[in-house]
Amino acid sequence: MKFRLERDVLADAVAWTARTLPSRPTVPVLAGLRLDASDGTVTFSSFDYEVSGRVSVEGEVADPGTALISGKLLADIARSLPAKPVEFSADSSKVVITCGSARFTLVTLPVEEYPELPQLPSASGTVDGTTFAEAVGQVAVAAGRDDMLPTLTGIRIEIDGETVTLGATDRYRLAVREITWNPVRPDLTGVALVPARTLVDAAKTLASAGDVTLALGGESDDSLIGLAGGGRHTTSRLIDGEWVPNYRRLFPTEIATVARIEIDSLVDSVKRVALVAERNTPVRLAFGDGQLVLEAGSGEDAQASEALPAQVDGPGIATGFNPSYLLDGLQALGTPFVHMSFTDTPMKPVVIQGIDSLEGEPSSGYRYLAMPIRLSS
Amino acid sequence: MNGASDAAGMADMVGTAGMTSTTSASNANRGNGTSVWDAVVGQPIVPALQQTVADASASLDGAPSGSMTHAWLFTGPPGSGRSVAAKAFAAALQCDSGGCGTCAECTDVRNGTHPDVAALVTEGLSIKISQVRELVPKAALRPARGRWQIVIVEDADRLGEDAADALLLSVEEPPDRTVWMLCAPTAEDIAPTIRSRCRVVQLRTPPSDAVATYLSTTEGIDKRTATFAARAAQGHIGRARALATDENARSRREEVLKLPFALDDLRQCLDAAASLVDAAKADAERHCDALDAREVDELKRALGAESTGRKPRNMDAAVKELEREQKLRRTRVQRDSIDRALIDVLALYRDVLMLQLGVRTELINDEMRASLDRLARNSRAESTLRRMEAIGQAREALMANAAPLLTLESMALTLREG
Ligand SMILES: [Zn+2]
């Protein structure tokens, strides 16, 4: 095997495929990165039985072939190279990398012991990479982090024709984002539950690729999800089992009070007030009379209170929230103002949506629901 | 690999460290039979499991699930092959033809590289809650190859209360395609909350002739050696394999069986205890040294140690972690080695007791009949029973991590007094 690549192309390709490699592999060969050179294309692949990554780049291939070498070490080397063409040449026991005056020799691992990468399931459609990454990031804030409740650590992807709905919840909050996309068929439907950590990482690293293909497969190949864009392919195992059934009903339909507030000052206030809130105690919010009053803490020594201008439509309402849940939602909106809607009881959840002006109506397709904490009177 | 009480054959015992499965060529190629069930020796329950595999397969095509269920508990005495049976069942469920033993599914399950079969093996005295935390998310995955997502817990009797609680939710309500397989000596070793969710597969100690036949047909061992090994191992397959194939194991056993004849004074008792401990250490060295070195070597190589021009980062930490697991494994190998010796001594006294009681039965140590007769004439059945009890107590103490030398010294003194 012998080929030559531009340094930046190499560094990008290797950094991306090596990012999922374990520092302590369960089987030694899984620490490897597989190189395949043929016909003007060099492909780098990694696989750990749960996530696979593959990227193909153009290169001058003098001698086609395959080799498996330590992935983390290669990534380290690729980062350190000068901006010059990089030449790989391999025999049966080692790969020699030369770049300018730098020269490295890597021992090859037994490629015949390396597991075969899963095929990308059949494509479901394409979505703008930046939009998708933003949407995934917005819902991921609500995903559970407790591995003992695996279904809640996933992001649910639901396809219904031209709409993709992403959702995540840890039972205390629920984030949902709808985006439009280009399905391969207008009547396409499908559902997949993807480990949130994996999906966030994949979406983020494919964001700059322009169009990203989502591949949920059909009846015969729906056991994995695939994402592809810009020459990069990744597959991930799916989480099985029941997610929150009929989650849409959790969004209240009867809205009594709506508050519109500037996000940056609200975030700052919540952070300041939360400083005196003990762990797991709420920040109290009282809406009414053109303002929002935030309070936290109990007893004389540790109390905090602040007031912010707010446009409040409907009867005044006072309720309490876990401050970090509130902040997660506010910071995921990506708009200058927030639209908070309440029912007529402080026991029902608040729904947080982004708006562009104090007069605006929500339109971004992102909704963040947070359960209130009961206030002791 | 069934606890300190389970004197498994070394070849079985030293295959893995922690969750890490390191496949050696000798391990990888063991299944040269025509079916994964060939390795499940002398178990009348196999046809029922095969029926379940057929039901399970039909249920994938939409038929009712029949005898298939989501949680199984494999029980049986040490050496009956609980984890072997669980793995055969796992392979048969993943295989398109019910466990052919040769396809990719069967091979991957046997080698521990099947993406849809996770196994928790413990070298420690108890399963840590962190190990359960790693396992539960795997049980929630949809099978990558489309059939079943299988999670095997060997030594499930080593689940502490917390670890069992952590496991419970997942065993109670697994996804449709998830199958739990727990292994333990008896159903009573498992918390009732979990036990009640499981269908029990009760294995028995395989009869000696079944073990002998297995050794000669599957492993190509001559009939005489196979018969001797099967009898001496008292139905423990791994032990029988070791006795049949390993000269060291045979001579070690002969040494151990001299022990009851050399307990005349205090000095001899202390020497006997010390020699058991030393032999166990030697055993562990013989079986772990090369394996440990190879595992470290393979890991270093995989992380790029032999490369030139740049030093791999974080390699030392990974190697340290591996070495920690290897140390645990070595401790377990030593403990199991002592236990195996005690089982052999116990069997000798059992033979003596049979002679004293005049029971006509096959002696486990038939080739020593003359010396056994002498021992039987020179003591009474009550003393033999007390000696057997002392051995049993020593085994229990060692299993609970008592200091080996002290425990064995005290046992040897009781054996002397009778
Ligand atoms: Zn098969």
UniProtKB/TrEMBL annotation, chain A:
Family that this chain belongs to? Belongs to the beta sliding clamp family.
Domain of life according to the entry: Bacteria
Span of domain DNA polymerase III beta sliding clamp C-terminal: 248-355
Functionally, this protein is described as follows: Confers DNA tethering and processivity to DNA polymerases and other proteins. Acts as a clamp, forming a ring around DNA (a reaction catalyzed by the clamp-loading complex) which diffuses in an ATP-independent manner freely and bidirectionally along dsDNA. Initially characterized for its ability to contact the catalytic subunit of DNA polymerase III (Pol III), a complex, multichain enzyme responsible for most of the replicative synthesis in bacteria; Pol III exhibits 3'-5' exonuclease proofreading activity.
Instruction: Tell me which UniProt keywords the record has, alphabetically.
Output: Cytoplasm, DNA replication, DNA-binding, DNA-directed DNA polymerase, Nucleotidyltransferase, Transferase
Q: How does it assemble?
A: Forms a ring-shaped head-to-tail homodimer around DNA.
Signal peptide start and end residues: none
The places in or outside the cell where this protein is found are: Cytoplasm
**Where does the record place the DNA polymerase III beta sliding clamp N-terminal domain?**
1-118
Q: Which GO terms describe its molecular function?
A: 3'-5' exonuclease activity; DNA binding; DNA-directed DNA polymerase activity; identical protein binding
Which Gene Ontology cellular-component terms appear in the entry?
cytoplasm; DNA polymerase III complex
Q: Which Pfam families match?
A: DNA_pol3_beta, DNA_pol3_beta_2, DNA_pol3_beta_3
Biological process per Gene Ontology, one example term = DNA strand elongation involved in DNA replication
Looking up SUPFAM superfamilies in the UniProt record yields:
DNA clamp
Question: Mind telling me what this protein is named?
Answer: Beta sliding clamp
Residue stretches making up the DNA polymerase III beta sliding clamp central domain: 127-243
